[in-house]
Recover the amino acids of this structure.
């Protein structure tokens, strides 16, 4: 997968609120761009600027060929102008190979706070730098992060890593005691002091490949842990098309430790319900952090229903699950009562 960062200018007065009015149009247009997995647009200083404002467009592509077809010829007019209707005047384009993604909430309908951290490593330091940044991702999730994208590119004999963090707002980050003008966990990056750049923007995030959110976020598995039914909402939460989830076994796409998963399954089968947290692989690259509630033999014996929410949503309870099952299937106990 490819992370493509375009820096440029948007018309005067374009701020996050102005971008918000374009969300539906951008989302609809992005769905028609083959290979485009996600799109983030950010601006800064838009409310105060007299002229064009600084802007950034981050796109994630599933493969190089799709990206090339969409951007190789006349991008300013064809992709941005005619297809996305985004009046971005391009100034710089940089390409990175995606090295990892982490998701903890569905894309927000509200403006988001975007942080782009760029770190240049010296020769032979690439692996350590990437692992340092990757190790931070789950901690960032617990701090309120919506999404994180980690990528890299070769620059001469060196490696440049970029970590893109999408946050609900600056206040979420400030509430953790972190500085807004400095990298998070700056001490971890001490070996690269002087080779770090941090940019912040207000923006919007669009994920055109996510399924439409419909129904309660539940899916049903059989005794072999095979997914036999899934709502659009659950598929979006897990980051997969619904048709790609049905028929897969949970161990195929769970990112959890196998031993921990086995212990959790034993507890679930013995007590009949379970609440907890988990990580799932996102196709084709990345992880999504979720919380779940599960009930055995629901809605019918031999089938087990799981209610899922992304990490930074309220943790689901068994009561929430039972209400979701009633909403989706009716009252499963009604047929058993005299």
């Amino acid at each position: 997968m490819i992370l493509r960062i375009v820096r440029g200018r948007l018309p005067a007065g374009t701020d996050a609120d102005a971008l918000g009015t374009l969300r539906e149009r951008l989302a609809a247009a992005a769905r028609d761009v083959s290979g485009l997995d996600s799109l983030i647009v950010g601006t800064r200083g838009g409310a105060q600027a007299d002229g064009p404002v600084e802007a950034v467009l981050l796109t994630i592509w599933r493969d190089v060929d799709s990206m090339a077809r969409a951007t190789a010829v006349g991008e300013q007019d064809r992709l941005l102008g005619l297809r996305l209707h985004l009046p971005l005047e391009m100034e710089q384009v940089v390409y990175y190979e995606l090295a990892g993604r982490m998701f903890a909430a569905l894309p927000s309908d509200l403006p988001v706070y975007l942080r782009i951290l760029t770190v240049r490593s010296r020769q032979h330091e690439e692996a350590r730098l990437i692992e340092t940044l990757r190790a931070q991702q789950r901690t960032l999730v617990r701090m309120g992060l919506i999404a994180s994208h980690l990528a890299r590119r070769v620059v001469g004999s060196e490696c440049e890593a970029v970590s893109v963090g999408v946050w609900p707002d600056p206040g979420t980050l400030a509430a953790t005691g972190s500085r807004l003008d400095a990298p998070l966990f700056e001490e971890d990056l001490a070996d690269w002091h002087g080779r770090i750049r941090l940019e912040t923007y207000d923006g919007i995030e669009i994920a055109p490949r996510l399924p439409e959110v419909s129904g309660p976020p539940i899916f049903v598995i059989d005794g072999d842990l095979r997914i036999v039914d899934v709502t659009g909402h659950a598929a979006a939460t897990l980051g997969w098309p619904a048709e790609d989830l049905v028929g897969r076994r949970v161990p195929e796409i769970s990112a959890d430790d196998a031993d921990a998963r086995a212990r959790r399954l034993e507890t679930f089968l013995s007590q009949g319900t379970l609440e907890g947290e988990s990580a799932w692989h996102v196709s084709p690259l990345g992880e999504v952090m979720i919380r779940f509630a599960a009930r055995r033999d629901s809605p019918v014996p031999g089938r087990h229903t799981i209610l899922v929410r992304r990490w930074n949503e309220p943790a689901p309870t068994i009561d929430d699950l039972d209400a979701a099952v009633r909403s989706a299937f009716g009252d499963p106990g009604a047929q058993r009562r005299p």
